[in-house]
Amino acid sequence: MAGLYFHIPFCKRICAYCDFYRSADLSLIDDVLSAMGAELEEQRDFLHDKKIDTIYFGGGTPSLLEPCLMGALIEHAAKLFDCSDVVEITAEVNPDDITPKYVKGLRDVGFNRISIGVQSFDDEELRFMNRRHSAAGAESAVKMLQDGGFENITLDLIFGVDGFGERVLQRSIEKALELDVQHISAYHLTIEPATAFGRRLARGKIKEVAESQSEKEYALIESMLCSAGFEHYEVSNYARPGYRSKHNSSYWRQVEYLGVGPGAHSYNGQERHWSEQALREYVAGREYKSEILSAVDRRNEYIMTLLRCAEGIDVQDFEAKFGRGESVVLRGLASRWIESGDLVWENNRLYIPTSRFLISDAVIESLFDA
Known about the structure:
By secondary structure, this protein is an alpha/beta fold. It is 41% helix and 19% strand. The protein has a nine-stranded mixed sheet with strand order 7-8-6-5-4-3-2-1-9, with helices on both faces. Helix 6 (165-178) packs parallel to helix 8 and helix 12 packs antiparallel against helix 13. The longest helix has 17 residues, at 211-227. It is globular. 35% of the residues are buried.
């Protein structure tokens, strides 16, 4: 099985924290969609006839498109790939794009999972992040999706925002739980240099939160969501039983996927490729950068992706893929983290306890081969 990802690189407004490939030039939408159809044709052999089981529209802001336009890309893909076993089709949406008519359109073209970019249920924090919706608008959008028949909804929250802290975060979590969604993603704010926040940070207008504050907010999320019956199954992701993201989980399990659109990455087990072209160049003709993964690359990526998940690494599977010697090396590198309790090696499984996921990057990087 394999996944199919469509990157819709358009936004009405650029959020202050966003470092994704995106553009506010909406005049290019039709041309880019046409080019994405052409890219599907060009890349039809990349997945080596693997069946598609998940489809995901991310961005950017996919909900700037009418559902029928996303449906046309799905139909185009079904002519090129075996999509007969697709079980999950997700669209990322912005709350203020949602209307009852739009919800019906999403259902009509086959979407069965919605990811809604709420980020916060506090109006002041939303303005600080330059979001274009209000807290009330976000709540209304979730209810419209539910009233329209969606039973698999995930919402995003951001924590670690300087000046807001635990009280604001707690109210956002309480509202998310009150809305009874099936999945919540909670991301720590990362300030990248090429963003509005990055420029403000450089001028001393804002600051990053202290590590101790991050730990408090992380512990609050973990406690509130797990107490409410959510599984903490990946560093930033919590789901009610049976509602894990199948598409995103495939990334963490190293399942192959084809990414279509400017800035989208693809992976087929041996090769990764992507386009970094500006939109007009992408429309004129796709050019790709690519890399063939070495044995070391594959080992490191295996560790990186699987240790992001609660189940961690199956040591027997690791040995089957990389050899007994590499397992011995891994055990040696992991030993100091095992002693500190930041890693656990038991029952042929190596994993990071979910309570320690906040430091997962440091743990994982220390296990890499150079």
